[in-house]
Amino acid sequence: MRKAVELKKAYRLLNHGPTVLVTSAAGADRNLMAAAWNMPLDFDPPKVCVVIDRNTFTRGLIEKSGEFALCVPTRDQAVMVAGVGDCSGRDSDKFLRFGIATFEAQKISAPLVESCAAWLECRVIPEVHNQTKYDLFVAEVLAAQADTEVFSDGRWHFEAGRAASIHHISGGAFFETGEAFAARE
Ligand SMILES: Cc1cc2nc3c(=O)[nH]c(=O)nc-3n(C[C@H](O)[C@H](O)[C@H](O)COP(=O)(O)O)c2cc1C
Q: Which of 68, 71, 76, 123 lies at a 20 to 30 A Cα distance from 41?
């Protein structure tokens, strides 16, 4: 079940460094791509940053709309994540090509990817220098949701036998998020 995540705890959805899907939409176009280079940036109001290469189709849609979503996929979706990160929405609709189901976001027009573990709806905070020189986008999180099977009471709980989030190494190889442990006595 999807449930809203308190905005000041939204950073916890990305704090462990998952590779995400970036969804975007502008006019009649919609798209998604993979992004390993993302991170939380602030607690309240929550902010994130993500590298969106200038050659991607996604980049133009985000520049037009000023919005994007970060969807946190699981291991079950890894082949699709690698696939959408290896072709461009300029050439074909990746949602159709990869059979990706979506649902409506609450605050932005970009679609959210079904079956992910969490979703963050973001509005770009324009930082022209960072965008132009480093392809780096800073954004405020307007809404956050997570699947209660794996995230509740502000915590991830990926249990054995259930698909967890993924971390890109390179060349289509990933780690799956492992066992959590506490380091405080
Ligand atoms: C696992 C994975 C992680 C990626 N991470 C990033 C990233 O953080 N930033 C980026 O600009 N591109 C990243 N890419 C590449 C884009 O996903 C890729 O260029 C994609 O084809 C762009 O799609 P588009 O042209 O439809 O927007 C990654 C690709 C893969 C497979």
A: 76
As a whole number of angstroms, the distance between CA 95 and CA 98 comes to: 6
Q: Are the C-beta atoms of residues 68 and 120 closer than 8 Å to each other? A: no
pTM: 0.98
Q: Is 6 in the pocket of ligand 1 (CB under 6 A)?
A: no
Q: Which atom of ligand 1 is nearest to the CA of 58?
A: 27
Domains of the chain, start order? 2-176 (2.30.110.10)
Convert the pLDDT of each residue in 128-162 to its tens digit: 999 999 999 999 999 999 999 999 999 999 988 88
Which of 20, 33, 57 to probe ligand 1 with, by most ligand atoms within 8 A of CB? 33
